[in-house]
Model the fold of this input.
Amino acid sequence: MSVINDIDVQALQDTTAAVRASPQLGQATFSVNGSWQGGCRLTAQTGALTQRGERDDTPPLGVDVRVRADADGG
Done:
């Protein structure tokens, strides 16, 4: 198994080949859950992934990604 930048290259190649053979496998919907904090402030986090009609609420790679943006850079 070859790993480059924490990516299993063979798994990536296998996934690419599977999507080429069945393009519907590559169709996915990502969601983001946001909470308006007022003014120019929004707190957002990743939501569910839906692929092939199946919903997956597991955070990607087991990590819950949260983003906060403030107009004042805070």
Summary: The longest strand covers residues 28-38. The longest helix spans residues 9-21. Strands lie at 3-4, 7-8, 28-38, 41-51, 54-56, 66-69. The chain has one domain: 3-69.
